[in-house]
Structures are given as C-alpha cells and as structure tokens.
Write a structure and sequence with these properties.
Class I glutamine amidotransferase-like protein (chains A, B), two-stranded antiparallel ribbon, homodimer, glutamine amidotransferase (chains A, B), 7 helices, DJ-1/PfpI (chains A, B), alpha/beta, Rossmann fold
Chain lengths: 219, 219
C-alpha cells in the first residue's frame, strides 16, 4: 500500500463538543482517514479547549461514551479549506463549548472552500447565520427542533443531503458517510469515491433526493 | 428523553490498538452509546497502556488520524460480558499492543457471554485460537490474508456477518454496524434495534448471507 504523494495538502478541520454523536464524526473521518492514504490531507480536531472531548451528552450522565483528543482550540486553529460539523444532543447545551463553536463557524466560513455538516450539526451553522438564504437539511427525527433554530434557512425535509453553493448538509448520523462520499466524488472523482466505498464495504445512498427516513419520522 | 433505568448492567469492552479502523470501532460504539440511553450498559475501552490510542497505522505515517482515550489496560480490565474487537491495518504490526491484545482475548474468551468482531478484528481472535473449529468471516478485500492467520477456522467468504455459538464475526468496516444491530435485535428485541436504526438513519443489511462485497473483491 503506497503512502500518499507529496503535494499541497487539503486542510480539513472538524469541530468537536461535549455530547457530539460519535458516528456523525467518525463516519466522515474514517472515509477521510482512508483517503489520506492516497491524497495529501491534514486534519485539525478543534474544540473550545485541548481537554479530551467526550461523546457523553451532559443531560444524559448515565450513558456510555468515548473521549477524543483535540489537536487545536478554536483560538489556535490553523487556516482550513474544509470544515466538518458533526451533530449530537450536546448541541442542546448552551455552554461555552457550543457558543465558542458557533462564533468560530461564523468567523471562519468566509475563508472556507467547503462547509460540510452532519445531522443536527447544521443547527450550529444555522445559529451562526451561515445558512441564511440557503437550502439545507438535518436530522429527520428532530427536524422541527433544528429548523426552528434557523428561521431564514430554506430547510429541505426530504433529502439524504443537500448541496447549496459550497455548503453540504446531510441528514441524520449515517447520512454523514453518504455526504462525505458524494463530496469526495465531486472533488476527487468517482473512482476514488468508489474505491473508498468498496474498501469500507459500505452500501451508499447515491441519490441525494431519496430519503427513506423523512417518511419514517413523519415528514 | 428518559435516561436509562437502573438494573444490572451489561458490561461491554472494546479493544483498541494503534492503527485500528475508526469506523470499525465507532459504528458499533455509536449504536451502543444510543442503546445506553434506555438500557443499562457499562463500557471499558481496553488497550495495552492508558496512553491515547491513535487510528494512525504505524506503516502509514503520513495519514490523518484521531486519538481515543482508553479507560483500562488489559491488566486492569474489569470482568466483561461482551467483548468487541475492531479491525484495522494496525493488526499487521507485531508490536506489544497487538500481542497483548491477542493474549487478553485468549484469556478472557471463556468468561464472555459474547465475542463480536468487525473486519479483520477476526484475525486477532483467530490468532488467539478462539475461532478454531468455528465458522467466521472477515474483511473481503484482505480475506485471504486474514484466513491464512487462522488455518483451523471455517472461513466464510460470502457473508455480511456470521454467528457461530456466542461468536459474531462481521465483514469489513461498515458491516460492524450491521452485526451490532443484529446482535442488539437478538439480545434486546426487534423494536429496540429498529428504533436505534431509525435514529441513526441507517439502511441496514438485514440478511447475514447477502454480501455484495464478496463479489466486488473477487471472492
């Protein structure tokens, strides 16, 4: 297996906060980890402090969880080309970790090539104002809760993912794998995306408009 | 959202090692994280030391990665009911982290209710000897490499997952989500598994015998 060729890296960042949904983050990250075997990527894992970030939702203290190490705070984040925002019930918290994330998204968005959200990660982008006037989607089980946070956003209730300009928003949790593979196909080509998909033995949703979970959740 | 009821917890453990595949671990873990909102679970994250465990494959130093905090070493691991073993290219390493994992699997298996492997995590179980005489499956892209490590195992080339006694082995990476949901259905019932699946907006492989990736990878 060849390690990646040298070239100007694509600089990717991901925002983590207490109570992020593990698969929202690690679905896309696993695809990018594998992509980095053949393409030059950097990854910055951003949070409000450098302390480990737990998936434990503050309001659900008796759940099991995992803790991930950030590489940078929002204050020390390097320049990025792509920013990923996972969701999770931790977004319901109003603490400084969430507020810092929202401020960072608002400040950094104009300098990004792409913004990609998973699940209710789109709520943070909506509160930051960067989705105003855009088409976007989110988790289908809590669609109304998220939509209420972005009254100027054109929320799409039936979509596996939505692309509007340089913003890619996906539906809930596992839809993050589909949106990142669709984005990789757009940026790196179909063969690269298909090779990754086959390596992950993942059965992709390939049509952004087909969304079985909108109906499941009554939308 | 109700937090879990009090009851005797089901004690789950997962083995991590340098170069584990992120989605092998976090697909099943995310399902279990969500399950723990309604059912009493504990989780022990086991590794050879308490240092953060990176997904970076030692032989591929230029790739991007994430680091996870273990909760216990193999030497301090509490009693478990269920052990999860993810895969990853780090299994190709012969260092102490992998050797310690194999020794631990060999020692702990007789005390487990269930052993669940994802991808080439089955290679560790095979080397530990606990798959001898059993039907099992693994990643399809490197099927022959893994099968050679367990000459006394009845390797199944075409299966999304295989159940033999209390051992559940799955195919590559994302098949870990299918095997854990099938296991949750077996242990906690169909409604619990379906509710989790819908919450994750995941399109399950529901038939263990249908495996499109065996053909993709020439098996």
């Amino acid at each position: 297996m060849a390690d990646q060729p040298s070239s100007t890296p694509l600089r990717i960042g991901i925002i983590l906060f207490p109570g992020f949904q593990a698969l929202d983050a690690f679905g896309p990250l696993d695809c990018l980890n594998d992509l980095s075997r053949t393409h030059n990527l950097t990854l910055s894992i951003l949070s409000s402090t450098l302390s480990p970030v737990s998936t434990k939702v503050p309001l659900l203290p008796n759940t099991i969880s995992q803790s991930i190490l950030p590489t940078h705070t929002f204050a020390t984040a390097p320049d990025l080309d792509v920013l990923l925002i996972p969701g999770g019930l931790g977004i319901r918290d109003s603490g400084p970790a969430i507020q810092d994330a929202i401020s960072y998204i608002r400040a950094v968005y104009p300098k990004l090539q792409y913004l990609i959200t998973v699940c209710n990660g789109s709520a943070l982008a909506a509160i930051a104002g960067v989705l105003d006037g855009r088409r976007a989607t989110t988790n289908k089980k809590i669609f109304d809760e998220v939509a209420a946070l972005g009254p100027k956003v054109d929320w799409v209730p039936q979509a596996r993912w939505v692309v509007d300009g340089n913003i890619w928003t996906s539906s809930g949790v596992s839809a993050g794998i589909d949106v990142i593979l669709a984005w990789i196909e757009e940026v790196f080509g179909e063969k690269v995306a298909d090779d990754l998909t086959n390596g992950l033995e993942y059965t992709r949703h390939r049509d952004a408009n087909i969304d079985p979970f909108a109906k499941v959740h009554g939308l």
